[in-house]
Design brief:
Elements (H helix, E strand, L loop, with lengths): L1 H20 L2 E6 L1 H18 L4 E6 L2 H9 L5 E3 L4
Parallel strand pairs: 1-2, 1-3
Length: 81
């Protein structure tokens, strides 16, 4: 559980850093997550931090995990069965 919590804290830190510096955050997300979960949060984040650039890469959950492992996204939001 501790490694997962550390990853979550790292993701939160990256989001806040990108927001405060006008940087970019790359998010990998599965189709269902993008469509039904993520968009309202991204809209609120963008309103709160208009200088931050958010790039969402829509892939399967397994592909998102691979993108994260290879450093091609900063965080992923996926669902696993």
């Amino acid at each position: 559980v501790e490694p997962a919590m550390n990853l979550i804290q790292k993701g939160e830190t990256q989001l806040l850093d990108a927001a405060s510096t006008g940087g970019q955050i790359r998010i990998g997300a599965s189709d269902t997550i993008c469509r039904y979960f993520l968009i309202p949060y991204l809209e609120r984040f963008h309103k709160a931090f208009p200088g931050a650039h958010i790039k969402v890469i829509n892939q399967t959950s397994m592909k998102c995990a691979e993108l994260l492992r290879n450093g091609l996204v900063d965080l992923t939001v996926v669902n696993f069965p």
